[in-house]
Amino acid sequence: MEQLSFFSAEASGPRLADLAGVLCGQGRIVSFGRTAARLSVPLTELWRAKVLAAEFARRGVHADVLRDEEGLLVRTAFRADLIHLARAWQPGEEKKPPPGFRLTGGALRMWALAAGQPNGNHYLLAVDEDAGELLAGACRQLGLPAQCVGPRAGGPAVRVTGKRRLATLEELIGAPPPAAVDVWPGFRPPVPETAA
């Protein structure tokens, strides 16, 4: 019988705090005064939008999937229970990870669903340009060795490399939704050629 990691998304169950994971990637948060905030995630793939909206709902937060001239957007209404995320991640004009930010398996799952992509034997988690090193450090604190990479290596992103590390990442974020199987982390050996 396989034992779940204490930090995995499946062990902790869905929590509102997991929504910080979309802020690790391209997610944005806007506050309304000091009483409410709205979370939004711009996306280009419909499956990601649908899966994220479902994951938000699992955490008790309704999110709409909208289309605009730039693509898709998963967006919540202004909500009082999101103001703590706004205060932590948007203390000024720029969004940035809060000091001492610690990832959880649930937040890492949300990050992978919003901005994760396999790249050969690597897995890339897209980040805002200035946040990569801090978020790579948050991955390392979770027991997942990772490094920050720039545009030449497919970034800006946090990159996880190696069979064992990819297995750890997969354990932390749990089973993929059916629509995400093709972009879920895991070591994928080359497909052998068949004889004609």
Can you offer a commentary on this structure?
- This protein has one domain (12-179): Roll (Endonuclease I-creI), CATH 3.10.28.
- Helix content is 31%, strand content 21%.
- It has helices at 9-12, 20-24, 46-58, 83-89, 105-115, 132-141, 163-173, and strands spanning 28-32, 36-43, 63-68, 71-76, 116-119, 122-126, 147-149, 157-161.
- It is globular.
Which SSEs are present, and which pair or pack?
Blueprint: H1 9-12, H2 20-24, E1 28-32, E2 36-43, H3 46-58, E3 63-68, E4 71-76, H4 83-89, H5 105-115, E5 116-119, E6 122-126, H6 132-141, E7 147-149, E8 157-161, H7 163-173
Antiparallel strand pairs: 1-2, 2-4, 3-4, 5-6, 6-8, 7-8
- Domain count: 1
Tell me the Rg in angstroms: 17 Å
The total strand number stands at 8
Biggest β-sheet, characterized?
Answer: 4 strands, antiparallel
User: Can you list the strand order of the major beta sheet?
Assistant: 1-2-4-3
CATH class: Alpha Beta
Shape type? globular
Please report the number of helical segments.
7
Cα(first) to Cα(last) distance is: 41 Å
| Poorly predicted runs of 5 or more residues | 1-9
User: What is the correct CATH architecture?
Assistant: Roll
Summarize model confidence as the mean pLDDT. 88
Strand content: 15-25%
Q: Give the ordered list of helices and strands.
A: HHEEHEEHHEEHEEH
CATH topology: Endonuclease I-creI
Helix content: 25-40%
Give the helix/strand class: alpha+beta
What is the CATH superfamily? Homing endonucleases
In short:
With 196 residues, the protein is α+β, with helices and mostly antiparallel strands.
